[in-house]
Amino acid sequence: MSSQQIPEDSLPAVQETAHGAVEGTDDPFADPGLPAHKPRIQDLDERAANRSERAVALMFTLSMLATVGFIASYVIFPVDKIVYIWPFGHVSALNFSLGLTLGAALFFIGAGAVHWARTLMSDVEVAAERHPIEATPEVKAQVMADFAAGAEESAIGRRKLIRNTMFGALALVPLSGVVLLRDLGPLPEKKLRTTLWAEGKQLINMNTMKPLRPEHITVGSLAFAMPEGLDPESHDFQTQMGKAALMIVRIEPDDIKDKRQRDWAHEGIVAFSKICTHVGCPISLYEQQTHHVLCPCHQSTFDLSDGARVIFGPAGHPLPQLRIGVNSEGNLEALGDFDEPVGAAFWERG
C-alpha cells in the first residue's frame, strides 16, 4: 500500500463545493432563503390577465358542454349499439360516449382550476415558522386574515366570468351521477302497493290449479293460493307471485279476536299474504293449536287469530289480509286487493 499523503490544502475546496456552502458564509448548511419573486406577465399586463381569464372560462364552459353531452349520450345511444372507432375497434357507442364526455367534463374543470391558479392567483411564496398544533388566538386571526387576503388575490369577486362559469361547471358535473341512477332500474311507481288480486278474482289452489271452495278448507288446515288468470309458465310468474302469494287457513269464528278480520273472512276462512314483512321470505310453518305462523328465515311469528299481528321476531308489520267471499259458483274469490303493501317495509310506506 502506498504511503503517499494527499495534500491537506486541497481538501477544504473539494468539501466546500460538495456541500454547496451559501455565498458569504462558512456554514455549508445555512438556509439560503426564498429566491427573489419574479412577476408573471399577467401581473404586469392586464390584457394578458384578461386572456387568462377567458381561457379559464372557456375550459369551465367546455366542461359544462361535456356534461350536457354525457346526459345526451345516455338518452340517445341504445345499450346494444356497436360502432367502429379507430384505433379501439368495435366498441359500445354508449360506453365510449359516456367515458369520453365524463372524462372531458372532469378534465376541463381541473385544467381550468390549474390555469387559474398558475396565471391569476397570487404566486408569492411565504415562509411561516412551525407552530404548536393548538393555534393561539393571534394565529387564528392571522389565518382568517390570510384567507381573506387569498380570496382577494384570487380575484374571484372581481373576475365574475371565471366565478360564474366555475360554479356552472361544478353544478352540472354531479348531474352525471344522477343520470346514472337510471341504471338502478325503472321507478316502482305503484307496483310496491298493488298485486294481481282484485275484486272477483278466484282463489286458485297452487297444488291442483283449480278454484278453491269453502269445503276444501278444513279447520286447522293450511292452503296456498294464487290469483285467477296467472299463468305459471309466464315470464313474470315469479315476480307476480312474490307479491300475490296467499295462504288460507280456517279458524273457528269464536277464536278470531280481531273484528275486522272476522268481517273480511268467510265462515272462519281467512286469507293473508304469505310474504313476511321483515325481508320478504315465504311463510309456510303453521301451528294449529295457537294459530301462529312462523317465518323460517328469522323466526318472525304472527298470530292469525288476531289480525296476523307480530308476536315475536324482527318483522315490523302484521301480514296484510285479503278480503274474501264466495261467488255464484260457490268458489272462494277476492273482494279487492290486500289492505296494505305486501312484504318488507320501504321508506315511502305509511
TrEMBL record:
Iron-sulfur subunit of the cytochrome bc1 complex, an essential component of the respiratory electron transport chain required for ATP synthesis. The bc1 complex catalyzes the oxidation of menaquinol and the reduction of cytochrome c in the respiratory chain. The bc1 complex operates through a Q-cycle mechanism that couples electron transfer to generation of the proton gradient that drives ATP synthesis. Belongs to the Rieske iron-sulfur protein family. CDD domains: Rieske. This is Cytochrome bc1 complex Rieske iron-sulfur subunit. The lineage of its organism: Bacteria, Bacillati, Actinomycetota, Actinomycetes, Kitasatosporales. Pfam families: QcrA_N, Rieske. SUPFAM superfamilies: ISP domain. InterPro entries: QcrA_N (IPR045603), Rieske_2Fe-2S (IPR017941), Rieske_2Fe-2S_sf (IPR036922), Rieske_Fe-S_prot (IPR014349), Rieske_Fe-S_prot_C (IPR005805). The keyword Methyltransferase does not apply. It comes from the Bacteria. Its cofactor is [2Fe-2S] cluster. Gene3D superfamilies: Rieske [2Fe-2S] iron-sulphur domain (2.102.10.10). It is a multi-pass membrane protein.
